[in-house]
Amino acid sequence: xxxxxxxxxxxxxxxxxxxxxxxxxxxxxxxxxxxxxxxxxxxxxxxxxxxxxxxxxxxxxxxxxxxxxxxxxxxxxxxxxxxxxxxxxxxxxxxxxxxxxxxxxxxxxxxxxxxxxxxxxxxxxxxxxxxxxxxxxxxxxxxxxxxxxxxxxxxxxxxxxxxxxxxxxxxxxxxxxxxxxxxxxxxxxxxxxxxxxxxxxxxxxxxxxxxxxxxxxxxx
Length: 220
Fold this sequence. Notes:
Blueprint: H1 21-44, E1 47-51, E2 57-60, E3 63-66, E4 76-79, H2 88-105, H3 111-121, E5 127-132, E6 135-144, E7 149-156, H4 165-179, E8 184-189, H5 194-200, E9 204-208, E10 212-217
Helix pairs in contact: 2-3
């Protein structure tokens, strides 16, 4: 629902810097195994079926767009196909299209920088396309850490905004995170309407930086 223009990914290993080298290696192996397990779970639950998309807004990268003229939003079929390495440029194009409006508004739109930042952190096994009624509408990337999930990216293409896709996707993520009792953390671009979107869905601000505001949503 992030998402990511100017985001800073929390370092899940920072709290373990006091461990000796042997312990650190064991910890890293353990966390990598958890990441793989979480990715497999995301794949297994990739098809939601019919979803009631009631919210009248959706995320466009870090941008929230309200469609006040929409009275009723029909149920939609959502699916989350896994991405592969060769999808990277397609994902970059989605990210740039989704981010453009919010970044131009604050004078930070730089397509090359957006491309480089995404490719530097792209993990295909953790990234999923978002398909709404069999049409590619965006993508999501969640990085499961040992005690929380980090929502790195959630982008909906501009032409698919206003259908409640972002809210429907978040609802599915919340359900799975709650089952595992995992908080969800994310960062949103300062000045972006996505801050209002995430607060609407129960995220609470925890910190802020020059360009980003950070949030957490605890399991219900």
